[in-house]
Amino acid sequence: xxxxxxxxxxxxxxxxxxxxxxxxxxxxxxxxxxxxxxxxxxxxxxxxxxxxxxxxxxxxxxxxxxxxxxxxxxxxxxxxxxxxxxxxxxxxxxxxxxxxxxxxxxxxxxxxxxxxxxxxxxxxxxxxxxxxxxxxxxxxxxxxxxxxxxxxxxxxxxxxxxxxxxxxxxxxxxxxxxxxxxxxxxxxxxxxxxxxxxxxxxxxxxxxxxxxxxxxxxxxxxxxxxxxxxxxxxxxxxxxxxxxxxxxxxxxxxxxxxxxxxxxxxxxxxxxxxxxxxxxxxxxxxxxxxxxxxxxxxxxxxxxxxxxxxxxxxxxxxxxxxxxxxxxxxxxxxxxxxxxxxxxxxxxxxxxxxxxxxxxxxxxxxxxxxxxxxxxxxxxxxxxxxxxxxxxxxxxxxxxxxxxxxxxxxxxxxxxxxxxxxxxxxxxxxxxxxxxxxxxxxxxxxxxxxxxxxxxxxxxxxxxxxxxxxxxxxxxxxxxxxxxxxxxxxxxxxxxxxxxxxxxxxxxxxxxxxxxxxxxxxxxxxxxxxxxxxxxxxxxxxxxxxxxxxxxxxxxxxxxxxxxxxxxxxxxxxxxxxxxxxxxxxxxxxxxxxx
Length: 595
Description:
Strand order of the largest sheet: 3-2-1-6-16
Structural class: alpha/beta
Oligomer: single chain
Number of helices: 18
Strand content: 5-15%
């Protein structure tokens, strides 16, 4: 039978002429011959099932027999090695856990442990120089990444802007440069880099113009033509084009890419003036809130567990760690009145008295305002709105270089939407203003309760605080701030969806291009509300003094909202300050009676 198979196929062997004196076949040759003949049988069977193998056989017959045998032996050895590897892999997996996917879980657990160790180091506060000790040269200057997003190089005439105005040169660049200049000055001394994201192509001469204006040592990068491409289902669902509203999302990719290179990130719209006082106030409050969070109890041991969470949580006294971790410094956008005759402030205020008799809270104690020379019983517009270096802008738009307290107006919130929260054991502040935002999908044990401005019937039949997401009350910021540690906690723990990319279904559609608007990304809706993917962070403003309050006001330098929106929405920041001082004094009285 072996002889017949050998004569019928010459795939691995060919018959050789035998000498009259036949050589003796060794044992190794017999084994090799049997292996070859076994493979001949298998190969013949395969040729019957797969005709193309006949062509392969024809090509292989041209190879010398010794080479063919060597190839077969190597192939067999490879099979044996792979079998051993597979057995060892299965054994390792079985001994790691009792589940088949034990090895994968072991790897993931190891990675998670490493991440947790990194987070513990990076989440510690302060992880930056707060600026309070300028003589400590061992501390590095706080590294700031200032990210500015710009949709238009020239104004299009919408929203009460001047069509054709060179927005880039007359508004955006001066706003950016003045912001950075102020952050670099003493006592702030921040280390600032600029990252510019534009929907338009930034021409070389435009880039050079920015570089010439920036202070020495400021890093500068550009991502132009940054609008993502997609099928805009809201408008032209069959036409591929720029999804302009998703431009506001692009700063998240920059942040993720540079997360470990900076201490704090400032993504803002191109017409927001952000000064060193704003950043310093944010850092100081963040460090204090983090300290209070670390000292806060997990639960309230002095309150019976039989009571409901709502009964336990008041507007004063100690908060749990779950509540404290939701607090984050916030801001309110403001403008400066240009022409009060044409576009003035509201004349009919909410029925809350204006009280400018302040007590200043500093170093853990209250001081009468008349005895504290650094504070006046009015807002200080120099923190937000003085622009002494921008004479050209002031001349073109009739914008005051040094507006007074009565010139500063708010249009996106009012006392009706605000509450006050007492905080114990802090030397920086004792009362915080709670800005609107949290609500949907908010966990009850994380909710921060406050003393509402309408608690004592100030608004008549309106006996309930407005919901957190009302557009004309939510106090959008035109951007936001966050430290590296805060961003990591937002992305990994505090938000219901990813704060940093990727943005996958089911919470996000098409990387967030279709499901989310501009305000979700840059205005703060994801950060401060409970919308889909939201974080429900509770923004707070220090009400320790009028000066502290003023450091939470951000100047919207376009100054177009006062022209675009009704006058009844234009509330003087000074009036809001006086109203909230009235609410504060009533809250202090009620706290004594209720405590």
